Amino acid sequence: MANSVNISIEAPIENQIQEITYDGQEIYQAPLSMSENLARLAQKIDFAKSDDEFCNIKKEGESSSEVKSEEDKEPGYQSSLWPWDSVRNKLRNALTEVCVLADVLSIAKEKRYMVLDPIQPDSIESRPMVQVYGRKKALSAAGAVLLNGVERLRASETMRMTRNMPDFHIDLLRLRQNWRLKKVSNTIVGDLSYRTAGSKYSQTGVFEVTKAPEEQIAQAMSMNAAGPTPSALRVTVPPELQGVAFISVVCQKEQEEVVTATLSSSALNCPGTLPGDGAELHWQQKLEAAQNVLFCKELFARMAAEAVQLDASIPHMVVGNQIMATVLPGIQLLIGLCHNNGQNNNNSEAVKTKVVTSVSRCAPSPQPEERANKNEHDHVLEHSLHQLLRAVHHAHTHHPFPHPATGPLGPSKRRSLAGPMAADRYELLDMSKEQSLLEQIIQQAQHFFMRRRSEYVLDTIAKEVKDPLIVSHWNALNSPTQSCVKINIMAYGYDAVCRTSLVVHVGEKTLKCICRDGKVRHLSYELQELRDLIYCQIYQHQMTAVQAVGRCMGWQLLASSSHLGSGPVEPLGNASSCLLASPNGDRMIAIRCEPSVGIQVFIAQSPRKDFFVSELVQDKKWENLGGAFKEVKLEKMEGKNFLNKMELLMACLSSPS
Amino acid sequence: MGVTVLQQYPVPENKTGTYVIELLTKRILALGATQQGQFLVDCESYLSLPQMGTTKTVHILHNSEQPASVFSILESGTKNIHVIADGLFDLLMMKLSQHYTSKKQTKIESKGPRFELGDFCVKLGSVTMNQSFKGVLVEVEYRPCVMANAVWGLLREFLQGLLGPSVPVQPPQHLLSRMNEIYTPIDTIYQYLEHFSAYRKLTGLRSA
């Protein structure tokens, strides 16, 4: 053909796939070595055909021998290059030998020149006694093995039956019910990691199960006959998972410890009850402790990685077994991993001192106090750390089902609905955001502080201000990062007349106050802002309450202003005032309220008593205008509180003089 | 997602589209807006084959503001039916190629810079069909409000200030009937479709 096309054919480079594992990984076969390849090819030769071809080869061999002899004249050059040279030589030698053998056989067959005679083989010396002894010895060895086994079986059976010893297999069954076990050749190994629960932590949690020596069981039984029977199992956990571990969360404020939360399982809460010798521990407790160690390690490793990755304005620090993060200005969150792997005999002491040293570096306070602090640690942060990692594990194993069954697996329900609901880019961006564990725990700690601070502010104000009463109701239901408090301001005995209520939402770093008039104010983490707001609300309440009381008493409100322009400038808010007139109009009460000074009350009456005719004002009628205001000394007045005093004052002024 | 008004800006005689875009960019930047990337709205139309009876048109639109969604509007005589779906809808249309054929030469898109100015979001799009420039569309969105009636005055004033007195600002045809309803992203898409259909009918530049 004129336009022929070159086609090159080559074997695929990749090796044959031997196996595809369940996670999709392909295991390739190793490429064949030269000898293996030859062996594989040799297997394909059909030796049944060799009879005919043998002759051909012989003929060819004869014809090619001449060629070969010519080639042999150039020794070394080609033979050294050709890798099959030695093979060819060996084959040729073998062929020669086979040819000679064939010749000899054919000559012997004719029986003219050669005769084949049978040869007597050398008689082997047979010594029957040696054989007998040998067999006897072998049999007795085998018998001993069997007898030994029977003895052990019988011993364990009788021990179990008569002396009420624990049964290994029953124990193994119990272990199997709670833990993952498998048999690897001669040993039983188990896995205590959280891998099946969704953990992706690389450290393995392999433990080995063996049978406890009988002497130990007997000894343990004799030690405490009354207690529960010791287990026939012995569980060996790797050294890095031995002992006790917990995560301590310390919040410190300006070199002073504020709160400590300790993460540990309930058994580890009082490490003093854990005996130091691991062998005496029941396997269940031992495995639980090891699992807890693994959990704490995973939690800490995760948070340490996040602390390094996150770029906060004040960078988080990871030093050794401790993570430092700034929660609020001046307040730090210390998360430490405390792990005691059982080398020390006194477990609990070692752990305690470790924590104390980590704390006392910053807070040089006496140790007994520290310990008292430890005992009354807050369970909330401990619990939420647990919860956060478990939620991560849960999310790893529980994917939302795709709604059309053919849809992609993985995106959340919100994300899969984003297309049909026409979510815009901000919402989509929002969905892709994921909060790390550290961020979440920092937020929770921030909220914890904000809550405590607001509590403190409200309590101190309630203590400072007796009139009116400040009552705060904290919502019992709240989330780890949000809570809500309702504040009621009212006077004793006048709560039906006037009460001011406001709601404060406590967030992570901010407060949101919703006042009675519907105004929403966002406050920062500074305490003073909330304090100022509450004080403003208190004085506002007094003004509105006095007006309400006046209304009840039949007094008339002449004027009121909540933002008075006159007077000295107030440090917070504005002065407010109101003017009330008595029912028949002859008395007036003026109230001025300045947050920094307090409440001042003035009264005036008309006709004024101190009216004197002067040159300018001569007519008598002007005395009805009302005189100068005179201040009332409130503290000298009777009455339980301000409103009570005002009621008395109004009652007094209403009566005809 | 707030109320969006799409307004076409006439390109003056012997001026290019880039000139107009630059002019408007200068104006909006002078108002204090900041540029926040680019945007793209494209539209492709599919015609049903005659075997299916009366010919129907399906418009497939994408808006970069809703990146996960595909908007489709079926024109069947008097009534328009819209479906909002996720990105897989494009693949579905490919499967339907036996029944709906794409009119490739009418693929039309509007792209350009996107600005944010306080609560407003302004997009200056130059409309191209088959790489040929067709005109300029200005999209203004007021994000805090979802009722067209409540915000139309504000939007008109903003548009007048931005586009100048020479451009008459009228409420979009699509919005007229829906002034008192909650605005949804598909309303923006309808406005784009209106303008795109108008551009397709014209051969040259659209002046007014």
UniProtKB/TrEMBL annotation, chain A:
<dbReference type="GO" id="GO:0006357">
    <property type="term" value="P:regulation of transcription by RNA polymerase II"/>
</dbReference>
<dbReference type="GO" id="GO:0016592">
    <property type="term" value="C:mediator complex"/>
</dbReference>
<protein>
    <submittedName>
        <fullName>Mediator of RNA polymerase II transcription subunit 17 isoform X1</fullName>
    </submittedName>
</protein>
<keyword id="KW-0539">Nucleus</keyword>
<dbReference type="GO" id="GO:0003712">
    <property type="term" value="F:transcription coregulator activity"/>
</dbReference>
<feature type="region of interest" description="Disordered">
    <location>
        <begin position="60"/>
        <end position="79"/>
    </location>
</feature>
<feature type="compositionally biased region" description="Basic and acidic residues">
    <location>
        <begin position="60"/>
        <end position="75"/>
    </location>
</feature>
<comment type="similarity">
    <text>Belongs to the Mediator complex subunit 17 family.</text>
</comment>
<dbReference type="InterPro" id="IPR019313">
    <property type="entry name" value="Mediator_Med17"/>
</dbReference>
<keyword id="KW-0805">Transcription regulation</keyword>
<dbReference type="GO" id="GO:0070847">
    <property type="term" value="C:core mediator complex"/>
</dbReference>
<feature type="region of interest" description="Disordered">
    <location>
        <begin position="395"/>
        <end position="417"/>
    </location>
</feature>
<keyword id="KW-0804">Transcription</keyword>
UniProtKB/TrEMBL annotation, chain B:
<dbReference type="Pfam" id="PF08612">
    <property type="entry name" value="Med20"/>
</dbReference>
<dbReference type="GO" id="GO:0003713">
    <property type="term" value="F:transcription coactivator activity"/>
</dbReference>
<keyword id="KW-0804">Transcription</keyword>
<dbReference type="GO" id="GO:0016592">
    <property type="term" value="C:mediator complex"/>
</dbReference>
<keyword id="KW-0539">Nucleus</keyword>
<comment type="similarity">
    <text>Belongs to the Mediator complex subunit 20 family.</text>
</comment>
<protein>
    <recommendedName>
        <fullName>Mediator of RNA polymerase II transcription subunit 20</fullName>
    </recommendedName>
</protein>
<keyword id="KW-0010">Activator</keyword>
<dbReference type="GO" id="GO:0006357">
    <property type="term" value="P:regulation of transcription by RNA polymerase II"/>
</dbReference>
<keyword id="KW-0805">Transcription regulation</keyword>
<comment type="subunit">
    <text>Component of the Mediator complex.</text>
</comment>
<dbReference type="InterPro" id="IPR013921">
    <property type="entry name" value="Mediator_Med20"/>
</dbReference>
<comment type="function">
    <text>Component of the Mediator complex, a coactivator involved in the regulated transcription of nearly all RNA polymerase II-dependent genes. Mediator functions as a bridge to convey information from gene-specific regulatory proteins to the basal RNA polymerase II transcription machinery. Mediator is recruited to promoters by direct interactions with regulatory proteins and serves as a scaffold for the assembly of a functional preinitiation complex with RNA polymerase II and the general transcription factors.</text>
</comment>
